[in-house]
Amino acid sequence: MRAENAIIVEPVARLIEELSKLPGIGPKTASRLTFFLLRAEEGQVQALAQALLAVKEQVRFCTRCFNITVAPLCPICQDTNRDQSKICVVEEPLDVLAIERTGAYRGLYHVLHGHIAPLEGIYREHLKIDELITRVRSEPVDEVVLAMNPNTEGEATAFLLLRDLAPLGVRVTRPARGLPTGGDLEWADPETLGSAMQGRREL
Amino acid sequence: MRAENAIIVEPVARLIEELSKLPGIGPKTASRLTFFLLRAEEGQVQALAQALLAVKEQVRFCTRCFNITVAPLCPICQDTNRDQSKICVVEEPLDVLAIERTGAYRGLYHVLHGHIAPLEGIYREHLKIDELITRVRSEPVDEVVLAMNPNTEGEATAFLLLRDLAPLGVRVTRPARGLPTGGDLEWADPETLGSAMQGRREL
Fold first, then answer.
1. Shortest CA gap A166–chain B (Å)
2. Quick check: ipTM above 0.85?
3. pLDDT tens by residue, A54-101
């Protein structure tokens, strides 16, 4: 890369480097984006830079559920029409959006901001678990939906939460497992097909 | 998307929108990047925003070869050790980097900033072709290497340039076509294999 360092001018090299730090963006994609931005209108690049700064300045986490917000409480926690007796626990703010998009849930949320992953150094204390327990103790909650990702880390996190929630006398539920809509039974992995068969329902 | 608009706060929606304008980044990737940046350290986000602004403020195109630069002339045009008798014509500044990386060329460059594509409304006058002709007329050039992309648009552009360059009495060359190193003959497309057979060389 010696020849390259000599001929890539510093601001370009720096932008490539900063873009490469983003998840899923390697050096090649970062170069491609940089050369696109070099030729883009100045207004577009400034709008992007300002959007980045605005997000850091204005966006915070909801003091109650840790979803993203600009006010102390997020729009969902502010909405008194939501069912205050249900809390759906998710790993990330994006999961809130995914569930909202279905229109199938009208309760509140609680964002853990990750999952238990000892190998990555992510333990109980790094997640918003104590905050969830406090909410369940102090709010009129009768159901906690554990909507962690259906993978190993999600399962481990749900298991840990179940242990903490069981003594509090709330109903703890999980979204159903089964065949994805539009999927092909033939291509379902055995785990998914097994869950679907076990959870079969009368028509 | 109604429910979503209500719960995605404005600065977040705006950053997702701005990121979605980048090539190869759809709304899903833009969301993922946004939520990553929300959790990233403030310094990292500021560094990215500043790198964006710096690129637009400081980087311009070389007045001679139209490569990227911060000075009026790019580092390659400034380098008097480069062979001043050769100009390699490429479509994009990234192509300069790709050729430099090989270490197999020590002449100058000329960046066209695109290729002829009438269907996309890109004609001769949108490219730095007149500037190339002026250089060939006024500089001590004896070889012009047409290193456009080996595809239809690149071929069309090379053909057009050849017609303009022929009367000027310079040698016009193209990089060799053939089997890519590490490739498998069995999987080569007929076009590539045909070029390789036609261009076969004595051992």
1. 31
2. no
3. 999 999 999 999 999 999 999 999 999 999 999 999 999 989 988 888
CATH 3.40.1360.10 fits domain B61-202? yes
Query: Domain locations in chain B?
Result: 3-58, 61-202
Q: Which helix (H) or strand (E) holds A186?
A: none
C-alpha–C-alpha distance, residues A73 and A167, integer Å: 28
Q: Residue B95: left (phi > 0), alpha (psi -120 to 50), or beta? A: alpha
Query: How does DSSP assign A63-93, residue by residue?
Result: TTT--EESSSS-HHHH-TTSEEEEEEEESSH
Domain spanning A3-58, CATH class: mainly alpha
**Mean pLDDT, chain B cut into blocks of 10 residues (203 residues total):** 63 94 92 90 94 94 95 94 96 89 91 92 94 97 93 92 94 88 80 81 72
Q: DSSP per residue over A95-143, as a string? A: HHHHHHHHT---EEEEE-SS--BGGGTB-GGGTTHHHHHHHHHHS---E
Residues of A in Cβ contact (< 8 Å) with B69: 9
Of A14, A24, A97, the CB nearest to B8: A97
Q: Pick from B11, B49, B58: which is nearest to A59 by CB? A: B11
CB contact under 8 A, B49 and A54: no
Strand partners, A144: A87, A172
pLDDT-based confidence at residue A4 (cuts at 50, 70, 90): low
Q: Which two structure tokens, joined as six digits, stand for A84?
A: 């205050």
- The greatest distance separating any two alpha carbons of chain B, rounded to the nearest whole angstrom, comes to 70
